[in-house]
Amino acid sequence: MNGLRTAAAVFLLAGLGACAQTPPIATVTDPYAGSRYTGTLPGGTLPGASAEDFRRIAGDTVWFPENDAALDGRARETLVRQAGWLKQNGSFSTVIEGHADEQGTREYNLALGARRASAVQEYLVSQGVERGRIRTSSYGKERPFEICSDPACQAQNRRTVTVVTPRAGV
Q1: For residues 87 and 84, what is the distance between their CA atoms, to the nearest angstrom?
Q2: Are strands 134-140 and 92-99 parallel, antiparallel or unpaired?
Q3: Are 145 and 157 contacting, i.e. CB atoms less than 8 angstroms apart?
Q4: Separation CA 151–CA 170 (nearest Å)
């Protein structure tokens, strides 16, 4: 009797094995494919954005006439590019460094550098950059680009330099 049960069990298992099918290959569907994100994200940084990108794309230096803090057309073009880059890269903050040539007293050149940095800051704000992201400082004639006495060379020291850095926690 046990032999008959064993034979029936083997026959039944063999029959079930013959009916077994291989499981279908699972397909994975991307739930986000074809959809559009409609949430809100804070202004961020595009992948690969850096201070070097800012210098290369927007230019970081604006030059000024002698004893003046007025922005000419070339300066405004540079600042429009800077503002565009800063608006696209909301996780960066800036320091605008004002400089002057070596003519004049230390105090006069510090004040002139401050006026130049302030003029750049105001222009960037007028282009839509948040005021809180921009700081200014003045070095006067303390950090010249070139040390020289030639007027054309001294013109290189009448400038502002916009330095960008990633903001902490953004």
Answers
A1: 5
A2: parallel
A3: yes
A4: 44
Written in H, E and C, the secondary structure of the chain is CHHHHHHHHHHHHHHHHHHCCCCCCCCCCCCCCCCCCCCCCCCCCCCCCCHHHHHHHCCCEEECCCCCCCCCHHHHHHHHHHHHHHHHCCCEEEEEEEECCCCCCHHHHHHHHHHHHHHHHHHHHHCCCCHHHEEEEEEECCCCCCCCCCHHHHHHHCEEEEEEEECCCC
Q: Which two tokens stand for residue 50?
A: 């850096």
Nearest alpha-carbon partner for 83 in 134, 46, 32, 118: 134
Distance of alpha carbon 25 from alpha carbon 45, whole angstroms: 40
**Burial bucket for residue 80 (CB in 10 Å: 0-12, 13-18, 19+):** middle
Residue 46 in tokens: 């595009």
Provide the pLDDT for residue 72: 96
Summarize the confidence of residues 105-110 as an average pLDDT: 96
Q: Is residue 140 a contact partner of residue 99, using CB atoms and an 8 Å limit? A: yes
Distance of CA 79 to CAs 121, 140, 146, Å?
9, 21, 23
| Section 140-148 average pLDDT | 91
Banded pLDDT at 32 (limits 50, 70, 90): low
* pTM exceeds 0.85: no
